[in-house]
Amino acid sequence: MSNQSYAARFGRVVSRTRNATALTLRRREPRIVLVSVTVGYLLTYLWAIGHLATGLGGYEVTVVADPLAKLLRPALGPFSFTPVARVSLGPVTYLFSLNTLLGLGLAILVGLNLALTYLAWTQPKACGLRESSSGVLASLPGLLSGAACCGPVVLIVLGIQASGVLLTAFQFLLPIAAFVLVGSLLLIGRQVEPRAG
Questions:
Q1: Angle at Cα 108 formed by Cα 72 and Cα 17, nearest 5°?
Q2: How far apart (Å, rounded) are the C-alpha atoms in residues 187 and 24?
């Protein structure tokens, strides 16, 4: 096949995925799946990286000096950023950083994957996707990417001697997760028949 035919096929896949996503946003049940999974995944991601934890009570917002300059400052690795604000809301303390936006991006991808998977399961004749669980499986690397900063601590707690190669691999889980989630979204989206909705 020529490059133009690959580009045309890829364009059709992207178009079908976009149409399936629009159908997901129009229908009530897939939209509920999208919102609940996105919120749940983001909260789990923030907890995994230590930016959401139990607080000491009280209500307070603290912002560091010159937050815009510090927003892009890496903390422990290439995809881990320094918190620039702390919000205490009673029993919960939240640290805002660029990690929140990265986690939100992953959460939306996971939510879309699972919403499209739900849509495919409810329309098996239109989709031909009754046995697929790629939306669920694609979300795992994203959740594990939350271990990029605390992965070594988890390994130490479990008593596993980790080599430098394994520790280096933790910091690349975030881009790998995003790549796998986008690929899974395209895989599921191309099989959903939007006119069936």
A1: 125
A2: 15
What does the pLDDT look like over 19-34, one tens digit per residue? 888 888 888 999 999 9
Whether the Cβ atoms of residue 174 and residue 76 lie closer than 8 Å to each other: no
CA dist 108 and 112 (Å) reads 6
pLDDT tens digit sequence for 77-103:
677 788 899 999 889 999 999 889 988
Residue 175, CA distances (Å) to 43, 78, 137, 156, 163 in order? 19, 10, 16, 24, 21
pTM for this structure?
0.73
- Which amino acid appears at position 133 of this protein? S
For residue 171, give both structure tokens.
């910091």
Question: Which tokens in the block code for residue 60?
Answer: 């307070």
Helix 28-48 crosses helix 98-122 at what angle (to 10 degrees)?
140
CA dihedral 143, 147, 149, 155 (to 10 degrees): 180
CB 46 within 8 A of CB 94: yes
b/e for 118-131, b at 16 or more Cβ within 10 A?
A: bbbeebeebbebee
Half-sphere exposure at residue 38, Cβ-oriented, CA atoms within 13 angstroms: 17
Joined tokens for residue 153: 């601590």
Strand boundaries in the chain, DSSP class E: 52-54, 59-63, 85-89, 92-96
Q: How many CB atoms lie within 10 A of CB 137?
A: 13
Instruction: Please measure the distance between the N-terminal and C-terminal CA atoms of the chain and give it in whole angstroms.
Output: 33
Tokens standing for residue 75:
């903390």
